[in-house]
Amino acid sequence: MHDNLQIVMSQPLEIAENYPSPAGLEQIFHLVSSDVDNLESQIISDIKTDIPLLNNVNEHIIGSGGKRLRPTLVLLGAEMFTGVNEKVIQAAKLVEYLHTATLLHDDVVDGAETRRARQTVCRIWGNEASVLSGDYLFAMAFYQLTKMRNAEVLRLMSDTTTRMARGELLQLTRSFEASDEEEYLEEG
Prior knowledge:
Elements: H1 3-10, H2 25-30, H3 33-46, H4 52-62, H5 69-79, H6 86-110, E1 114-115, E2 118-119, H7 121-125, H8 127-148, H9 151-173, H10 181-187
Antiparallel strand pairs: 1-2
């Protein structure tokens, strides 16, 4: 651990007696629940294609539940500043597309049997369908990025996805036991 972090972690926790308890996650998420519902319907609409296999895969992975934590955090962040608008909805969608794409790819790499208590896409339709569907969602995410017309956001998301891919490749080439903490954190 870093020295400053060790100092902070060693301090006793002080809680003021008259301080209200923090809001629960459900209360916090309720602030943007109508926006999340709107987002969900747009995602479902956006993933419809003329390719039945892709529709089946997307319906399976998107419809499997999930908390939509990442796009919800995008929406909550916007609420703290300017509020939710169409560009924020686009950003939230692209974050969900990227996340879902990585799940499809990870399940293939990990040989996963289930995700969210359901059979994985790669177990039902095969690795090829899973990887190509993940690629399709990556492409949709970057299409959403171009519609935003914000070079800084494009740079940030490109850097993030590059780091994610690098981390996955490093993970493939190194065993967890052989990595020290710095290498492990670099992979993540």
